[in-house]
Design a protein that fits this description.
Blueprint: E1 11-17, H1 31-37, H2 40-45, E2 50-56, H3 74-93, E3 97-102, H4 108-122, E4 126-131, H5 152-156, H6 162-165, E5 179-184, H7 189-197, E6 201-204, H8 205-221, E7 229-235, H9 257-270, E8 273-279, H10 290-302
Parallel strand pairs: 1-2, 1-3, 3-8, 4-5, 4-7, 5-6, 7-8
Helix pairs in contact: 1-10, 3-4, 8-9, 9-10
Length: 313
């Protein structure tokens, strides 16, 4: 009788992108190292994953200049996103689960464009969960700051400079109906109109307050075919700043620790997680790395850590 083989463990590939090129405050460039110091690799290994840390990507420094034609640091933003896109696409081609360690959230353009390209080539459906305090659906015409970390979802949906929206080789990289936004509580007025015009599905904090995190996540995850690739883009400012102060754009009234744990556990229960961004962690604004440690704790829940004591888990 043949001896059954143990399943091949998932290989998670950690890709550091140490830049704050798209942000309005300096410090997110230190995020990748803070996550490593907080024990991300051993935490993932404790849940049966093989972990390959490929180190940090390189790219241009932050010139800290004012906006030019509506964008701050656009050439540098494009360079970083191109590097991220190439690295994430290569990781997926190796059969790995890429985990992007940001860096600010402008990097979501390159990361998700790579995932979308991979899914198109594999004929797989894609769903993106955007965990964030902000909709990030701004354009240069709507935001006076020009900070591109407020624009990645718009860019992915084809609204933005050609150099960014074409990363990944397909414009747009995403359709709005492939995205579910969760935890939103800070949206500019013009941005809000644009979100409604494009039919983006947003589960804001009022929805979570009224319906609870369980129903929110059930709605966000419903209707996915079995072969769906689920990408989670986790902006640490998704969390309430009382528990996660180490971010550049704090917005009060975010999910509590238990709500965030339930969110992550339900994503894990779906069995479809295929790629992950962890972005906007700013150690310069943190307290003894507590936000990085919390982020690692929540990422563990994405990969199977659970407080559930009922039989059958």
């Amino acid at each position: 009788m043949d001896t059954p083989h143990a399943p091949t463990p998932i290989t998670a590939e950690l890709i550091g992108a140490p830049t704050d090129i798209g942000a309005g405050a300096r410090g997110a460039s230190m995020g990748p190292e803070a996550l490593r110091v907080a024990g991300l690799q051993p935490a993932l290994e404790s849940h049966g994953l093989r972990v390959l840390d490929v180190g940090n990507l390189s790219g241009p420094g932050n010139p800290w200049l004012p906006p030019l034609n509506g964008y701050r640091h656009l050439p540098e933003v494009v360079a970083w996103n191109a590097a991220v896109c190439d690295a994430v696409y290569a990781a997926l081609g190796r059969g790995h689960l890429p985990i992007l360690l940001g860096g600010d959230h402008c990097l979501g353009v390159g990361s998700i464009a790579a995932v979308a390209r991979h899914c198109r080539e594999q004929g797989r459906p894609l769903r993106v969960l955007w965990l964030d305090a902000h909709a990030d659906f701004n354009t240069s015409a709507l935001t006076p700051s020009g900070n591109v970390h407020g624009m990645p979802v718009a860019c992915l949906c084809g609204l933005g400079p050609a150099e960014l929206v074409g990363i990944g080789g397909h414009t747009p990289a995403l359709r709005p109906d492939q995205v579910r936004q969760i935890g939103i509580r800070s949206v500019d007025e013009g941005e809000k109109r644009l979100v409604h015009e494009h039919g983006l599905e947003v589960f804001d904090m009022r929805f979570i307050d009224e319906e609870g995190m369980r129903r929110t996540m059930a709605r966000a995850l419903e209707g996915m075919p079995a072969n769906t690739h689920l990408h989670v883009s986790f902006d640490v400012d998704f969390l309430d700043p009382e528990i996660a102060p180490g971010v550049g754009t704090t917005v009060p009234g975010g999910p509590t620790y238990r709500e965030a744990q339930l969110c992550m556990e339900m994503i894990a229960d779906s069995g479809r997680l295929g790629s992950l961004d962890i972005v906007e962690l700013n150690p310069a604004l943190d307290v003894r790395n507590k936000t990085a440690e919390l982020a690692v704790d929540l990422v563990e829940s994405l990969f199977g850590k659970s407080t559930l004591m009922r039989a059958g888990r």
